[in-house]
Every structure is written in C-alpha cells, then in structure tokens.
Write a structure and sequence with these properties.
By secondary structure, the chain is an all-alpha fold. The protein has 2 domains: 2-121; 143-365, no CATH class. 80% of the residues lie in helices and 0% in strands. Helix 1 packs antiparallel against helix 2 (27-50), helix 8 (175-221) crosses helix 11 and helix 13 runs antiparallel to helix 14.
Length: 366
C-alpha cells in the first residue's frame, strides 16, 4: 500500500512540475522544471518496476494535483511551487527516517529536491546571476504558506467563535445575547488579527529597509569587496569558481541589480517582498478570520433556542470539514481523515465551552 502511495506522489509531482514548466516564461527555469518532471516520472517507473508492474499501470494525477493546477491558474503558479517544495521536504525527511531505522547508507537522492533544483541550475553554463537570483526567489516562494495561512485564518475564526457562541449558548438561551456575543467575538478577533498582521508587516518592512540601506552604503564604499563576497556565496552553493567569479562580476556591474542580489544573498531579503502593503495584509487577515467566525453566528440572526444551536453546530461542523479537507492540498492525506479530524477537534472545543457555560449559568441563576 505504501509503495502505491509513493507512486501516486511521484506522478502528482511530475504532473505539477510539467504545469510549472508549461507556464514559465524564463526558458532556463522552465528547463529545470521539465527536468524535475522527468526525474519524478523516473521515480514512479522505478517503483512500478520494483513491484513487477508494467508502465501501463502508472496512475493518472489525482484530483488534488488538478485542483492545485487550477489554483495556480487563478492565483499564480508560485503557489503551486510552494506546495511542491513542502511535499519534497516531507518525502526527503521520510526517506532519511527510513534509512535510519534500517541502518542503511544515505544517498544523495535522499536530499530534498530543492537541492537538486539548485544543482541543476548552478551546473548550467548559460545561467546568469540575475536568473539565479530570480529562481531562488521563486524557490523560496511563500506560495504554499500563503494558501495555508488563508485556510488557517478561516479555521481560527471558525473554531474560536464557534466555541464562544456555544459557551454563551450554554449559559443563556437568549437569542439576542448569543448573537451579540458572536458578533463581538467576530469583530474582536478579526480586529486583533488585522492589527497583529499590520504591525508584523510594517515592522519587518522598516527593519529590512534599514538593513538594505546599510548594504547599499557598503556597495558604494567597497564594490570590490562585495563582489568577492558574492562570488564566495555562489561557490559555496556549488557553482564552479570561474563561473561564480564571472556571475559576481556581471551582477556588480549594475549597481541596482547588485544591491537587490546582495541583500537577498547576504541578508536573506527579497526586495519584491517589501512591496506588499501592511494595510492590505491587515484587511486580508480581517476578512479571512471574519469568514470563519460568521458561520456559527448565522442561525442566531433568525432564531434562538435549541434549534439555532443545532443548526449552528451543523454549519460549523461542515465548515470544519471543508477546512480539514482543504489542508490535504498541503499534506496529501486522506480528505475524510483530515476533514473528520478537524470536525472532532472543533466539536470537542465547543462542547467544553458549552459545558463551562452551563455551569456558570446555573451558578449565576442559583
């Protein structure tokens, strides 16, 4: 069973790398994605051969992979790359773990495919410094994390407000009290999330801008030293020394490009990442939290009592299942397993707060 799961993982990865290649404008980077697709296809065939199965037994890409392709088409293919890199890291860790258990020797193929991508790129004789910088910006894409953050933002709103609503419902049967508490919880939580996101983005931008200014001063004061440092960085990544020296020289010849590459290589900062709006991040965080938080409140706009509680619980359970199912885009686990797990945890949290509300309500009345 594990072997067939591995085959499917390789098929999906090969399919997604091919999607990335077909939608990549830079030929050097598209070539890397095509090679990675071929590597994944080769892995799948190797697994089939190990099981004594013909090539015709190779499965088609899963619905998960097709959904990710659609997400890429709508939101951008960096999201797909982000998910792929997470998947590769998980596969690499699993292989290394199995080798430790069986006490077998590690292989270079055990390392994350992120490393393979770097090696393919650095060994290409026609790869320029700017293309290397661009690839690594994509390589460290937060696309997967951004999708995950969207899902988890909705989950935070749903679970926290569902628990709050059930706690108030346990303490009182009044429709208006529950509705007021639910809306207050929605606004308080969403505003807190938005303010936290705004502060986080703004403070990071200010810190990075200060570091970038210092880097620009160093570049203007000592360009030869910065060129040597950049060449050493490329060499440490496996780029042959002559090519690394030429790449560094090409980069330093253009001050603006050199500054962008240096702040990324030395400070780990991507200049384009600083263009994001703190207010936009805050509004997004507010909306994602509010979408999840409004779900358990909806029935109390129209009714109260046990019927509203049951409908609220049903809607929240459905929302939790959808969120759990969405998480499988990143984990590759069973939709039913992830969805039901999310429902169980959410219902347990709501049941605890409902019980506490009952106890507090009884003690106040008594």
């Amino acid at each position: 069973m594990k072997t067939f799961q591995n085959i499917q993982t390789e098929v999906d990865a090969g399919f997604l790398y091919r999607v990335l290649a077909d939608n990549e404008s830079e030929e050097d980077i598209a070539k890397i994605f095509r090679q990675m697709s071929e590597i994944e296809h080769g892995h799948a065939l190797a697994f089939l051969k190990k099981k004594g199965l013909p090539e015709s037994a190779l499965p088609a890409p899963t619905n998960r992979a097709k959904i990710l392709k659609t997400i890429g088409k709508i939101f951008g293919y960096d999201y797909v790359l982000g998910v792929l890199l997470d998947t590769e890291k998980s596969i690499s860790n699993a292989i290394i773990g199995e080798r430790k258990k069986s006490k077998t020797t590690n292989s270079i193929s055990d390392t994350a495919h992120v490393t393979i991508l770097k090696n393919i790129l650095s060994n290409g004789s026609r790869v320029s410094g700017s293309n290397l910088a661009r690839f690594e910006k994509r390589h460290r894409s937060v696309g997967g994390n951004a999708l995950r953050a969207a899902v988890l933002g909705g989950n935070d709103g749903l679970v926290s407000n569902f628990s709050l609503v059930m706690g108030i419902a346990g303490a009182t049967s009044g429709q208006s009290e529950i509705l007021l508490a639910g809306l207050a919880g929605l606004l308080a939580g969403a505003l807190s999330m938005a303010l936290g996101e705004w502060i986080s983005v703004k403070s990071s931008q200010e810190l990075y801008e200060n570091q970038m200014q210092l880097e620009m001063e160093e570049l203007e004061a000592n360009p030869e030293g910065e060129e040597k440092e950049l060449a050493m960085i490329y060499i440490s990544k496996g780029v042959p020394e002559p090519q690394a020296l030429q790449m560094a020289k090409n980069v330093i010849s253009n001050k603006d490009e050199a500054h962008e590459v240096l702040v990324k290589e030395e400070l780990g900062i991507n200049a384009e990442d600083l263009k994001g709006s703190a207010m936009e991040a805050a509004i997004t965080s507010f909306v994602l939290f509010a979408i999840g938080a409004i779900i358990p409140v909806i029935p109390f706009f129209f009714m109260g009592g046990l019927k509203a509680i049951l409908i609220s619980t049903s809607l929240s359970a459905l929302g939790l299942f959808l969120i759990g199912s969405s998480i499988t885009l990143f984990t590759g686990k069973s939709i039913w397993f992830s969805g039901l797990r999310q429902v169980i945890f959410g219902l347990i949290a709501a049941a605890i707060t409902f019980g506490i509300g009952k106890l507090i309500g009884v003690s106040v009345i008594g």
